[in-house]
């Protein structure tokens, strides 16, 4: 029998292309290297060959065997790699990447930082107080009378934890950041100037403008000879830094138990420039009789032209007394503002609830 090794080699090459699985490979091995395989057949045929052909055919068979063995090894590795890849797909670096979402500070945190930043540049330091307070710090020390309605359980979250220092009294979630004033004054002597940002709690039903939890920033400055004019100057600078130089300020007499005299601070509406209406809006369907024709009432200030921003006043002598300061030595100014209200005014947000819903579509706008 004549063995055409060239032809066999070509056939082997061709068949190699068709080997895709371990089963294909095994069938290929058996066909050539098995006990009844082609290589065995070639060797078996040697006996019947003329003597001069024997070495040539033997050599050809040996070469063929080592080539086929090499092919099998190579294919084995290829198949194993392919199977591994199917089980654990490798990263395809040609695919376009998925950019990770970059986080940033919450709009309320940004607003707190902005408010505190203005005061820090004016020489104030930022301090924080605990959210769980004593009735003394939250009410009594701040000159809030025992019969004041804000002390009622309907208006304050009392905890099921007795006040360790005051028998018969219970701890509560602070209803304002003002108790921090007491803590700071008990620890430090004047002169002092601090701002205190933080969460406060009131059992209010949640609606577009109320939440059971919101944020305040409290300010306190105590020294000798602090005057109401200092308070006006300080808050005017603050409001202008926050809302722009154009705004006008208005201090309305008000009552707070912990300050005397007290005032509420308004700024002229920065949307309508204090006019109460927006200049010529072709889409305006409704106009007030006193408004210029075609103008639209300003929804930010509710056509008032003024925005209520914060409360303030000169620290009440009873508060100094509760903090343990000597009588008639110091005077001080205090103020407090709601962070959500500032953010709502500044960014035109209509509903307080949206700050706490964690809706990324809202949060990523700021
Ligand atoms: Zn307005």
Summarize the structure.
This protein has 366 residues and is of the alpha+beta class. It has helices spanning 5-17, 22-33, 38-45, 54-87, 107-121, 135-138, 179-187, 228-243, 317-322, 339-347, 360-363, and strands spanning 125-126, 132-133, 158-162, 170-173, 192-201, 213-223, 249-256, 259-268, 277-278, 296-297, 306-315, 331-338.
Strand and helix layout:
Elements: H1 5-17, H2 22-33, H3 38-45, H4 54-87, H5 107-121, E1 125-126, E2 132-133, H6 135-138, E3 158-162, E4 170-173, H7 179-187, E5 192-201, E6 213-223, H8 228-243, E7 249-256, E8 259-268, E9 277-278, E10 296-297, E11 306-315, H9 317-322, E12 331-338, H10 339-347, H11 360-363
Parallel strand pairs: 1-5
Antiparallel strand pairs: 2-4, 3-4, 5-6, 6-12, 7-8, 8-11, 9-10, 11-12
Helix pairs in contact: 1-4, 2-4, 5-10
Bound molecules: zinc ion (ZN).
Folded structure, characterized:
By secondary structure, the chain is of the alpha+beta class. It has two domains: 5-87, no CATH class; 107-269 and 305-363, 2-Layer Sandwich (BirA Bifunctional Protein, domain 2), CATH 3.30.930.10. Helices cover 36% and strands 20% of the residues. It contains eleven helices and twelve strands. The protein has a seven-stranded mixed sheet, with helices on both faces. Helix 2 (22-33) packs antiparallel against helix 4 and helix 5 (107-121) packs across helix 10. The chain is elongated, with a radius of gyration of 42 Å. It starts with a helix and ends with a helix. Mean pLDDT is 89; it is low at 284-289. Bound molecules: zinc ion. Zinc ion (ZN) binds at residues 269, 271-272, 276, 298, 300-301, 305.
């Amino acid at each position: 029998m004549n063995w055409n090794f060239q032809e066999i080699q070509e056939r082997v090459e061709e068949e190699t292309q068709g080997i895709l699985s371990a089963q294909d490979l095994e069938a290929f091995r058996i066909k050539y290297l098995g006990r009844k395989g082609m290589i065995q057949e070639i060797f078996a045929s040697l006996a019947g060959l003329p003597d001069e052909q024997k070495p040539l055919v033997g050599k050809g068979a040996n070469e063929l065997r080592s080539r086929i063995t090499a092919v099998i090894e190579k294919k084995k590795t290829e198949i194993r790699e392919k199977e591994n890849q199917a089980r654990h797909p490798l990263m395809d670096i040609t695919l376009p990447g998925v950019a990770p979402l970059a986080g940033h500070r919450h709009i309320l945190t940004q607003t707190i930082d902005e408010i505190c930043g203005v005061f820090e540049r004016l020489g104030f330091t930022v301090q924080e107080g605990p959210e769980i307070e004593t009735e003394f710090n939250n009410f009594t020390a701040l000159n809030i009378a025992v019969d004041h309605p804000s002390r009622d359980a309907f208006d304050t979250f009392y905890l099921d934890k007795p006040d360790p220092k005051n028998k018969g009294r219970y701890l509560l979630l602070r209803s304002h950041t003002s108790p921090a004033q007491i803590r700071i004054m008990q620890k430090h002597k004047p002169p002092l100037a601090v701002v205190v940002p933080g969460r406060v709690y009131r059992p209010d039903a949640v609606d577009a403008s109320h939440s059971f939890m919101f944020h305040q920033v409290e300010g306190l400055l105590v020294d000798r000879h602090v005057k109401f004019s200092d308070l006006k100057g300080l808050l005017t600078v603050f409001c202008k830094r926050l809302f722009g130089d154009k705004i006008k300020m208005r201090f309305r007499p008000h009552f707070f138990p912990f300050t005397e005299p007290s005032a509420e601070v308004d700024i002229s509406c920065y949307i309508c420039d204090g006019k109460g209406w927006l200049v010529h809006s072709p889409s305006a369907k409704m106009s007030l009789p006193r408004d210029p024709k075609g103008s639209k009432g300003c929804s930010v200030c509710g056509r008032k032209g003024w925005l209520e921003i914060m409360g303030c006043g000169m620290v009440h002598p009873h508060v100094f007394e509760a903090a343990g300061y000597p009588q008639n030595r110091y005077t001080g100014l205090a103020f407090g503002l709601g962070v959500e209200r500032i953010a709502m005014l500044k960014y035109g947000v209509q509903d307080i609830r949206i700050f706490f819903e964690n809706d990324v579509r809202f949060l990523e706008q700021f």
